[in-house]
Amino acid sequence: MTHCEYSFHKTEGNDGFHRKLIINQGIARYSKDDQEIELNVFDQGSLFMLASGIPSLSNAALSADLAIRSVLGFYQNYDPESPQLLWNFLLDAHHSIQQRQRTTDVSSLGTSITVLWIHEQKLTYVNIGNGKLLLKRDGNIEPLNLPQTRAEMARRRGLPAPKNPKQLSQALFFGMLYPEKKRMITINEILDYDTQVFQNKDTFILCSAGFPGQEFLSSGQLVDSAHHRNCDVAICIDKIVR
Question: Would you give the DSSP letter of residue 228?
Fold first, then answer.
C-alpha cells in the first residue's frame, strides 16, 4: 500500500484556526482544541488535509473541526477507487451543515479546505477557499489550484473584475452573495477537484495562506517559506513510497 514521508510546519503566533488531518500507514492524526489525536484506521492510502477557519467568523475553529471530522469519516467509510465520491461527499456535508445552521444557534461557520488523497498510482485533490496545493516535478513547481478569490470567480465566469478582488469568494459551510449577480454562489461552482496519475518522484506541498485577502507568494518562494516558517501552516510531502 502506498505511504508517504512528510513533514509539518507551523508559524509562531498562529491564530489557532488551522486544523490538519494526516492519514498514513493506517494511522490517522488530527488536531482538535490544540490536542493531537491518533486513531487506527483501515489503510486506504495516504490522505493529507488542511482546514483554515475564517478568523473573522465567531465559529472559525469549529468550522475547521467539522471539516476535519467530515473527511475523516469519509475516509473510513468510502472506497478510494471511486474518488468522485469525495467531491459528492463534500457537497453533501456542505449542504447538510448549512441546513443545520438554519435550525440551531450555531452560525458564522466557514473554512477553507485542501485535501490530497494518494492511493496506488493516483492522486485526488479537492480545494475550496484560499488553500494552496503545489506540485514539484523534475525541478519545476506548479500550483494545482488557484485561490478562490472574488477576482478568480469573476474570471471563470467571464465577468468584469469585482470590488475587493482579493477577498475570499466562498468557503466550506459558508455562503456569500456575489454582488454583481445578486445571488448566492453554490459550492459546486467553485469546488476545485481532479484525479490524475502521479510520477514516482513527485512531491507536494499543502499550504494555508490566512484569511481574508492575503496574497500568496510565488511558487518558488512558497516552497522555501514552508521550511522557514514564513507561512501559516504547511504539510510537505517529501516522498511517496509504494
Answer: T
